[in-house]
Design goal:
The protein has about 625 residues and is α/β, with parallel strands linked by helices. The chain is built from 23 helices and 19 strands. Among the domains are: about 120 residues, no CATH class; about 190 residues, no CATH class.
Length: about 625
C-alpha cells in the first residue's frame, strides 16, 4: 500500500489546508529552518506511528495553531487535522477478490482523515453488496425460490427480511454471517456494512506505519543501564533500548549479573551486522570498529560504546567521533526495530538526515535511500543542496514560511530565493560536474581559449587531421591565478587533469604550479604552455600567438570595429613578446576583452581556407601532444 497524498490542515505553523503529493519512492521536502518541515513530518507520523509513544499522539493544546486555539476550544466543534490518501496494492486487491468475489470491491484509492477530538473518517471504501450476495449464492445449498429472493435484493440489510424454506439448510449460517458483518459496522458508516467489513478486515491491518527519525536519536558514548531499567524514555534513551533489543538482551539480566562476557558478545554480534551495513554506504572512513564495555561505577552500571580506529589503534567514545558517523550508526540501530517486523508496511519519515555529514557522505546517504525505497517509501526534509538530486526534481516539495503560515508547494511554482537556494545550488553543482568537468579535463585560462580550441579542433577533424579527443573536456578556470586551485580540486576527485596555459609572467603563480609538481599533485608534463607550439620565436606566448598576425588582426578589427580604430600590421611593435601586448600598445589600453575576437571567430563559421597552413600546423601539433597526456 502506497501513500499518494497528504492534506494537512491547521497544524502548528500550517494555518490553512495544504495538499501535498507523495512520490511512490522518495519525496524530498526542502525549506529553510523554522519553515514548517518538521511539523509536516510529525503530523504524518502521528496518524499511525509504529509503536506507542506519547510524543506521537495528536494534542489539541500543542498542535492546534496557537493564535486560533481559544476560538477552537470554545466553539465546541471538531476539525480535520490530516487526511492521507492511499493506493492499494494489487496483491491486497486480489486477496479481497478471492475471499469476497470478483467485482465486489474495485476501489484502488481511499482516504483516511483524522480529527482533533479523536474521531476519524474513511472515504472511498464501498463494497458492491449485490455482487457479494450473488457470489455467495454459488456456494450455498438453497431452494430456487430463496435464491430468487436473495437475487432480488441489493443490500445485506434486505437479507434479514427473507423467510427461508425448511430445505434451506445453509441459510441460518449464511444469515448469521451477514448479521455479524452488519453488527460490527459502526454508526458512522451508515448502511455501508460490506464497506466497513472490507476496511476493518483487509485494509486497516495493512495500512503503513510511520517511522520518524531525527537528530535527537543519537546514541551516547556512555549509557546508564539503571536509567533504562527505571523507564527512562527520552529521545537519547530510545536508540539505546533499541540496541539492547536488537541484541536480545534483557536490561534486568545485565543488572543482576556480574559476568558481562555473554552480553558483550551479543552486542558485538549485533554491532558487526550493523557495521557491515553501514560500510556498504559509508565511504568516508572504513577503518573503524565498534567496541562495547560494561562498567560498574558508584553502584550504577554503564554501557560504554567506543569506536576503534584500525589505522591509529586508538578508541574513543562514540559521542566523540564525528556526528555524521554517530548519526549513521544510530539510524541503523533504530531502523532495525522496523526491519524486524516482517508483517507490516512502513513509511520512513526522516527529519534533516545526515545534517552533519560531509557532502560526499551525503551522496552515500542518498544512495542508501535509493536502496531503501525499493521496499519502503521515504519522505525526508533537508536544506542541504547535496541532499537534493538534480535529476529527480519531480520528487521535491518546497516549504515556505509566510504571513499566512507554512506553504507547501511544488518546487517549480515557488519563487522564494531562500527556499529555492538548495535546488539552485544542487542544479548548479550538477551542471558544473557534467557540463564543465568530466573524467579527462584540460584546464585553460578562460572562455576565449575554449572557443579557439573548439573551432580549430572541429576544422582539423573536418579535414581528417588530428583535433582534440572527444573524451577531453575543456574547463575554463577564470584566470591563471585559479589554475592551481582547480588542479588540486579535480585531482582530489580522482579525475585526470592537464593544463594548457599562457606563459606565466607572475612569479607567484609560477611558484604555486611548481609546488604542485613537487608535491606530486600533478605531473610536470601535464602542464603545457602555448609558447611550446606558437613558433613565434619568443619564449612567451598566448593562444592568440598560434595564429598568424594577419589572421588575429583581422579578427580583432571585426570584433572591435565600433570601439577602436582599425589596427594594421605595420602598427605593431614586433619587439614586444605577444600580439596581445602589441595591440594594447597600439590602442593605448592595458587590456581589451580577449573574448570578443574568439566569439567573432565562432560566429563567422569559417573553414580551413580562413587560416594559413602554419596556423593549422601549430594547432594540430598542440592537439597531438595534449591527446597523449590522457
Amino acid at each position: 500500500m502506497k501513500l499518494t497524498n497528504v492534506t494537512v490542515n491547521k497544524y502548528k505553523s500550517i494555518l490553512k489546508s495544504q495538499s501535498v503529493e507523495i512520490e511512490p519512492d522518495i519525496t524530498t521536502i526542502v525549506g529553510m529552518n523554522e519553515s514548517g518541515k518538521t511539523s509536516f513530518l510529525q503530523a504524518i507520523a502521528k496518524t499511525n506511528y509504529f509503536n506507542s509513544d506519547k510524543d506521537f499522539k495528536f494534542d489539541i493544546t500543542q498542535d492546534y495553531p496557537r493564535n486560533k486555539l481559544v476560538d477552537f476550544e470554545s466553539s465546541g466543534e471538531d476539525e480535520e487535522i490530516l487526511s492521507c490518501t492511499y493506493l492499494l496494492s494489487d496483491e491486497l486487491l486480489n486477496t479481497i477478490s478471492n475471499d469476497l468475489g470478483k467485482g465486489v470491491f474495485t476501489t484502488k484509492i481511499f482516504s483516511f482523515t483524522y480529527h482533533y477530538k479523536g474521531s476519524s473518517t474513511v472515504s472511498g471504501i464501498a463494497g458492491n453488496e449485490k455482487k457479494y450476495l450473488e457470489d455467495k449464492l454459488k456456494t450455498l445449498a438453497l431452494a430456487s425460490d430463496t435464491k430468487k429472493a436473495i437475487n432480488a435484493v441489493n443490500s445485506l440489510k434486505d437479507v434479514a427480511a427473507i423467510v427461508p424454506l425448511e430445505s434451506d439448510t445453509d441459510f441460518p449460517a449464511f444469515k448469521a454471517e451477514i448479521k455479524k458483518i452488519m453488527d460490527a459496522c459502526p454508526s458512522g458508516w451508515g448502511n455501508s456494512f460490506l464497506g466497513y467489513h472490507i476496511f476493518s478486515t483487509y485494509i486497516k491491518p495493512h495500512m503503513p506505519k510511520f517511522w520518524y527519525f531525527d537528530d535527537y536519536y543519537h546514541l551516547g558514548g556512555k549509557i546508564n543501564i539503571n536509567e533504562l531499567n527505571n523507564g527512562a524514555n527520552e529521545e537519547r534513551h530510545k536508540t539505546a533500548k533499541a540496541l539492547l533489543e536488537l541484541a536480545r538482551i534483557d536490561i534486568k539480566d545485565i543488572l543482576s549479573s556480574s559476568d558481562y562476557e555473554r552480553y558483550i558478545a551479543l552486542l558485538e554480534a549485533s554491532s558487526n551486522k550493523i557495521t557491515s551495513e553501514i560500510f556498504k554506504y559509508w565511504s568516508t572512513n572504513k577503518n573503524l570498529d565498534i567496541e562495547f564495555r560494561i562498567q560498574d561505577k558508584d553502584g550504577l552500571k554503564y554501557l560504554d560504546i567506543r569506536v576503534k580506529s584500525q589505522r591509529h589503534k586508538i578508541t574513543l567514545p562514540l559521542d566523540r567521533r564525528s556526528k555524521g558517523f554517530n548519526w549513521f550508526f544510530s539510524f541503523i540501530i533504530w531502523f532495525s526495530k522496523i526491519q524486524a517486523d516482517k508483517k507490516s508496511d512502513y513509511i520512513l519519515l526522516l527529519d534533516e538526515p545526515g545534517l552533519n555529514l560531509h557532502a560526499s557522505a551525503q551522496a552515500d546517504l542518498l544512495r542508501f535511500f535509493e536502496d531503501l525505497s525499493k521496499k519502503y517509501q521515504v519522505i525526508y526534509t533537508t536544506h542541504s543542496p547535496f541532499m537534493v538530486e538534480s535529476d529527480k526534481l519531480n520528487r521535491v516539495r518546497t516549504v515556505l514560511e509566510t504571513d499566512e503560515g507554512t506553504i507547501i508547494s511544488d518546487s517549480i511554482q515557488e519563487k522564494d530565493p531562500n527556499t529555492l537556494f538548495p535546488l539552485q545550488a544542487a542544479l548548479g553543482y550538477d551542471i558544473a560536474q557534467n557540463l564543465f568537468v568530466s573524467k579527462n579535463n584540460l584546464l585553460v585560462e578562460g572562455p576565449a581559449d575554449l572557443l579557439y580550441l573548439t573551432v580549430l579542433s572541429n576544422i582539423l577533424e573536418t579535414e581528417n587531421r588530428t583535433g582534440l579527443k572527444d573524451t577531453i573536456t575543456i574547463v575554463p578556470v577564470g584566470g591563471l591565478d585559479k589554475v592551481t586551485t582547480f588542479i588540486s580540486l579535480l585531482r582530489g576527485s580522482k579525475l585526470a587533469v592537464a593544463s594548457l596555459l599562457d606563459t606565466f609572467t607572475d612569479q607567484k603563480g609560477k611558484q604555486r604550479v611548481s609546488d604542485l609538481i613537487q608535491q606530486r599533485i600533478i605531473k610536470d608534463k601535464h602542464i603545457r604552455f602555448f609558447n611550446e607550439f606558437a613558433n613565434n620565436g619568443k619564449s612567451t606566448a598566448d593562444i592568440e600567438d598560434l595564429f598568424s598576425k594577419e589572421e588575429y588582426i583581422k579578427l580583432f578589427n571585426l570584433a572591435f570595429d565600433k570601439e577602436f580604430p582599425t589596427v594594421k600590421i605595420t602598427d605593431l611593435d614586433s619587439s614586444i613578446d605577444t600580439i596581445l601586448k602589441q595591440i594594447n600598445k597600439v590602442i593605448g589600453k592595458d587590456r581589451f576583452n580577449h573574448y570578443k575576437p574568439a566569439n567573432k571567430l565562432n560566429q563567422l563559421g569559417v573553414d580551413k581556407s580562413y587560416f594559413s597552413a602554419n596556423t593549422l600546423d601549430n594547432f594540430e601539433k598542440m592537439f597531438i601532444e595534449i591527446n597523449k597526456l590522457f
